[in-house]
């Protein structure tokens, strides 16, 4: 790497260095590849990557590197099709191996699609948050458009603000001869769907806007629908674990019965947390590629965790509760005095027989631990929530560098977010805190409770910042909070 940098610094080598879009260098221990440094001549270590196989296992051995990364046509494909000149920072970026596998899987799927069959299940890509899903989804669309295997590729976003951000990124990735179209309103969306102009091939819009086109006054006519459905349409759905499981996606699928759908998600919906009896697989099809958070942390593409444990309950107390429940006894005395109950009780009290945490055995079977038997209701108790808030407040000055940094506190439900908001406000009123969640989703706790909490949060925000937001304008509050609230965000993470 240093040798390449030195050669690039010498003027006589610059024409040779800049002639290549991608470089590879090897040591005794590892092999990395990286893009052309660009006009400034500086190689960015953040964009040195290890090539890996489909299962994300890094490849460093010279013979394996030669037969995979450097093979023909792989080397030609990587340079010709899997590099992105990002206008946002002026850096030429070569895709990572997992991005290559995902994008090529999608483009291959589209190339083999029998459009008249009406099979809408394209598949989904499970790539962890922070791994570059936006670039991967754009490259997938770009490959489809350039191959002319589809007439329209539509990036479907769940939120307006996310769509705006993604539109900016997509336009930064696009080549000079490409155009990424926005959809300011439903009328514009309909026009671009009907258009035969190649410049209208790549479209960014929201799932809400796309689902509403049939209901728009003066919008789609029967002839319009028939005409659009004559086109080969690909939907690429961002954040596919979110509201895509509601009626909106069903409406879109019904409106465009021949279209094929692909999903990108960092947290797919599986059987154990299915929504309305659906999973990511039933909605989008089979998994096309996976890049887990463990892969991302190992490759340093995603920041790792620095967890520390604060005991809300003592391990022995939790173990005793589970042991009594399994023994079907009310007290220790009752459990011990009965031979059958006693055997069960002591099994769960013995850490050698039942650990606190579950694990996989040598056969790959999951062995439950004490924590697997604890109901989630424990996390709603006053003892637990108070301990959590006290820990946040006691460590706030140190961990935030005296409020120099923000903090995000994720909850599992809207009611939980509201409760924590109220507790932090009560215990430390001078701390700037707000709560962010989707006002249109009720995942437990009742509508009345959620609305009362939302009103309280908005009123507190208005008083602190001199605003006049109401529930109908709550979406705008979400945007402004990111700029003005400088301490704690309590965010509901929807998993059920």
Write the layout of secondary structure elements.
Layout: H1 2-9, H2 14-18, E1 22-26, E2 31-35, H3 62-67, H4 74-81, E3 83-86, E4 91-94, H5 97-111, E5 121-127, H6 133-147, E6 152-157, H7 160-173, E7 180-181, H8 186-194, E8 202-206, H9 207-211, H10 222-228, E9 233-237, H11 247-255, E10 260-265, H12 280-284, E11 287-291, H13 293-298, H14 315-327, H15 332-337, H16 339-349, E12 359-360, E13 366-367, H17 382-399, E14 407-411, H18 414-427, E15 433-436, H19 447-465, H20 474-484, E16 488-492
Parallel strand pairs: 5-10, 5-11, 6-8, 6-9, 7-8, 9-10, 14-16, 15-16
Antiparallel strand pairs: 1-2, 3-4, 12-13
Helix pairs in contact: 5-6, 6-7, 14-16, 17-18, 18-19
Structure characterization notes:
The structure is a single chain. This protein has about 500 residues and is an alpha/beta fold. It folds into four domains: about 1-95, tt1808, chain A; about 95-300, 3-Layer(aba) Sandwich (Rossmann fold); about 315-375, no CATH class; about 380-490, P-loop containing nucleotide triphosphate hydrolases (Rossmann fold, 3-Layer(aba) Sandwich), CATH 3.40.50. The chain contains 20 helices and 16 strands. The chain has helices spanning about 1-10, 15-20, 60-65, 75-80, 95-110, 135-145, 160-175, 185-195, 205-210, 220-230, 245-255, 280-285, 295-300, 315-325, 330-335, 340-350, 380-400, 415-425, 445-465, 475-485, and strands at about 20-25, 30-35, 85, 90-95, 120-125, 150-155, 180, 200-205, 235, 260-265, 285-290, 360, 365, 405-410, 435, 490. The chain has a seven-stranded parallel sheet with strand order 7-8-6-9-10-5-11, with helices on both faces. A hairpin with a 4-residue loop joins strand 3 (about 85) and strand 4. Helix 6 crosses helix 7 (about 160-175) and helix 14 packs antiparallel against helix 16. Mean pLDDT is about 80; it is low at about 5-20 and about 480-485.
């Amino acid at each position: 790497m240093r040798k390449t940098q030195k050669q690039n610094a010498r003027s006589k080598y610059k024409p040779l260095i800049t002639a290549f879009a991608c470089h590879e260098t090897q040591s005794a221990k590892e092999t990395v590849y990286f893009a052309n440094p660009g006009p400034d001549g500086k190689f960015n270590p953040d964009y040195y990557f290890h090539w890996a196989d489909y299962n994300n296992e890094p490849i460093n051995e010279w013979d394996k590197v030669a037969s995979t990364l450097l093979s023909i046509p792989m080397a030609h494909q990587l340079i010709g099709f899997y590099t992105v000149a990002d206008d946002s920072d002026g850096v030429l970026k070569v895709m990572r191996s997992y991005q290559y596998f995902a994008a090529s899987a999608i483009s291959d799927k589209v190339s083999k699609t029998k459009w008249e069959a009406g099979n809408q299940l394209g598949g989904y890509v499970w790539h962890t948050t922070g791994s570059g899903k936006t670039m991967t989804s754009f490259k997938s669309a770009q490959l489809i458009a350039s191959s002319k295997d589809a007439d329209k590729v539509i990036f479907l976003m769940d939120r307006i603000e996310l769509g705006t951000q993604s539109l900016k990124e997509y336009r930064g990735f696009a080549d000079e001869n490409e155009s990424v179209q926005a959809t300011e309103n439903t009328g514009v969306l309909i026009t671009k769907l009907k258009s035969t102009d190649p410049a209208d091939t790549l479209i960014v819009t929201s799932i809400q806007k796309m689902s509403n086109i049939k209901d728009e006054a003066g919008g789609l006519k029967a002839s319009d629908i028939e005409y659009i459905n004559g086109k080969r349409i690909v939907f690429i759905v961002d954040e596919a674990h979110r509201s895509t499981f509601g009626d909106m996606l069903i409406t879109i699928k019904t409106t465009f019965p021949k279209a094929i759908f692909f999903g990108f998600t960092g947290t797919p919906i599986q059987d154990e947390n299915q929504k309305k009896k659906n999973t990511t697989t039933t909605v989008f099809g089979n998994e096309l590629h996976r890049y887990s958070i463990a892969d991302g942390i190992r490759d340093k593409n995603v920041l790792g965790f620095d967890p520390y444990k604060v005991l809300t309950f003592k391990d022995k107390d939790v173990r005793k509760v589970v042991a009594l429940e399994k023994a079907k006894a009310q007290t220790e005395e009752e459990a011990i005095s009965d031979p059958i109950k006693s055997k069960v009780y002591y099994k769960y009290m013995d850490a050698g027989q039942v650990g606190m945490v579950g694990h996989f055995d040598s056969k790959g079977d999951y062995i439950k631990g004490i924590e697997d038997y604890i109901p989630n209701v424990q996390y709603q108790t006053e003892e637990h929530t108070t301990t959590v808030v006290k820990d946040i407040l006691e460590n706030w000055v140190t961990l935030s560098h005296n409020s120099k940094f923000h903090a995000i506190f994720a909850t599992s439900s809207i009611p939980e977010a509201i409760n924590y908001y109220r507790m932090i406000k009560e215990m430390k009123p001078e701390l700037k805190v707000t709560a962010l969640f989707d006002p249109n989703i009720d995942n437990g706790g009742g509508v009345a409770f959620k609305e009362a909490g939302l009103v309280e949060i908005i009123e507190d925000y208005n008083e602190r910042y001199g605003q006049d937001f109401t529930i109908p304008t709550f979406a705008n509050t979400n945007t402004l909070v990111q700029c003005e609230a400088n301490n704690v965000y309590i965010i509901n993470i929807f998993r059920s």
